Amino acid sequence: MDVDVDEVASELYGLLPAEFTAARNAAVARARTAGDADAARRIADLRKPTLAAWASTLLVRHRPEETEGLLQLGRALREAHRNLDGPRLKELGHQQHAVLAALARQARDLAAEAGQPVSETVVREIEEIVRAVVADEAVAEQWSSGVLEKAPQARVGFTGLEPGPAAVPSPPERGGTARPEQPQDRRKKTVRERESERRESAREEERRKEAELAAARRETERRDKELRRAEESRRTADRRLSQAEDRLADLERRRREAEQARDRARDDAATAECRAAEAGRAAQAAREKLERLGS
User: Fold this and answer.
1) Is residue 32 domain-resident?
2) Nearest to 103 by CA among 149, 137, 55
């Protein structure tokens, strides 16, 4: 029988983090019993969520309207960025700050209601997670599934979005025949010069932003490499932890069996002692009877 790994993952990541490992190991055992080795392997690869990741997905499970509002805000911001819509970005940016802080507080309250209070440090991590949901469509999709292992990599701006062709302004067309410069021409020239300076300033600002973006990408690549190394170390540690937990469970089982065997041996020893005492009394009575008959 095939095991629905997605359904199992959804159930596991809805539990308290402290309950995750035992429930995951039980799910692995059920999958193996069902004969689905691939599902058992995939379930075993699931990792306990961080407190912030778990708390953030409580919003998905218990606040569907707020969740959809956040996803819509992310789509609107990414679209405004794609179109270089400055006024819209400014408007939505103000809205974003209020929404992220409010959602982080809601997640904190939901965690407390579930019996797992979180610190202000974790609340700030939750806010960073929902910020990544707004900035990155892939993160938004993963988070909205309710299955999130850890906070996504820190984002700089909006990920994977380049301004569309419609967002690039076309240079104004120039035309007309030459004639002697008039006072109004000088005024127009001054206006054109200011406009040219404005466009040059805008291009310079764009080049500066591109340089910052390139630097941020290099920094992200470096951090990603460090993250991959850290993740590999964590996976190794998790495997060792799982193996140690399995060994501990086996030792606990053996201890219980040994205690049961000890208790049975004590009962047998007590029974044998009673029988020996009875046999001793019977032998003594027989000897006394023999002595009386012999005399």
Assistant:
1) yes
2) 55
CB 3 within 8 A of CB 28: no
**Number of helical (H) and strand (E) elements in the chain, helices listed first:** 9, 0
Q: Is residue 17 part of a domain?
A: yes
Give residue 189's pLDDT.
Answer: 57
Longest dimension (CA), the chain: 166
Do 139 and 132 touch, CB atoms closer than 8 A?
yes
Which stretches does DSSP call E strand in 26-185?
Answer: none
Does residue 155 belong to any structural domain of this protein? no
Q: d(Cα 286, Cα 295) in Å, to the nearest integer? A: 14
| Residue 141, in any domain of the structure | no
pTM: 0.53
C-beta neighbour count of 143 within 10 angstroms: 24
pLDDT tens per residue, range 240-295: 887 888 888 888 889 898 889 898 989 888 898 889 889 999 999 999 898 899 87
| Half-sphere exposure at residue 57, Cβ-oriented, CA atoms within 13 angstroms | 26
Per the prediction, the chain carries an average pLDDT of: 83
Domain span at 31 = 5-44
Q: pLDDT confidence of 185, banded at 50, 70, 90?
A: low
How many domains does the chain contain in total?
1
